[in-house]
Amino acid sequence: MNAIDLRGVTIGYDDSGPSAGPPVLLIHGHPFDRTLWAPQVAALTETGHRVVTPDLRGYGRSGVTPGKVFLSDFADDLAALLGHLGIDEAVVGGVSMGGQITMEFQRRHPQLVRGLILSDTSAPAETEEGRQFRNRLADRLLAEGMDGYAGEVIAKMLAAYNVEAMPDVAARVLGMMRATDPRGAAAALRGRAERPDYRATLADVRVPVWIVVGADDAYTPVADAEAIHRLVPHAVMTVIEGAGHLPGVEQPGRFNAALLDFLATYVPASD
């Protein structure tokens, strides 16, 4: 792991692989860390891509900013990281909250985007009910820690049937959730509760876009992916069977095959 001080916080990240193919920046969701993308890093580096996988501030090995961290803060951190690494343009993608950070990145830093990957995410602004829920959850995590919450949501993070069928995967996902600093998770929840509507941003996107969703995602179902696809008609959409909210972890073979096909077809290496 590498680390760099950017914008008042230490950001941990991995920078893997050669640089023959277009660089890919992958953004984890809540409450995970950069290792969520391990299966994708392996597949991408084997096919010649440089892959950057950061820990968002407050998560993994990155520093914690207590209070409230907006999606714009995360996006600006990542733009600064690409600048530090000398990357002028990348395919930017994320899952769940990471997908929303990807949309915020497109809104704030479109000149850095060569393509988008939107996995198991949604575009509308948070509802009032959602704002209240996220703020209450932030309070709970600060008071109780991550363990109880992790146990409650594992059967939604993964398709419920995969929790028993894939015990090693479930254990890895639970481990990431339980290791997250509650202060970082709470700050992200409070900021995410105030997220803007990204539908206009998506409607203006002209770069290649891959929309991917687990067939049995309980948080952001296939209907949410279809709504994004209607906003971005030129996008490619893939539904991953046998997966819930984290198809890249639950079905890495299927996910990676579709990802590599998207990159090879729509985002070829520069001449």
Main attributes of the structure:
Rossmann fold, eight-stranded mixed β-sheet, 12 helices, about 45% helix, globular, Epox_hydrolase-like
What does this protein structure show overall?
This protein is α/β, with parallel strands linked by helices. It has one domain (2-266): Alpha/Beta hydrolase fold, catalytic domain (Rossmann fold). It contains 12 helices and 8 strands. The chain has helices spanning 38-46, 71-85, 97-108, 128-144, 147-157, 160-165, 167-179, 182-192, 199-203, 222-231, 247-250, 252-266, and strands spanning 2-6, 9-16, 21-27, 49-54, 90-95, 113-119, 209-214, 236-240. The chain has an 8-stranded mixed beta sheet, with helices on both faces. Strand 7, helix 10 and strand 8 form a beta-alpha-beta unit. Helix 1 (38-46) crosses helix 12, helix 2 (71-85) crosses helix 3 and helix 4 (128-144) packs antiparallel against helix 8. The longest helix is centred in the middle third of the chain and has 17 residues, at 128-144.
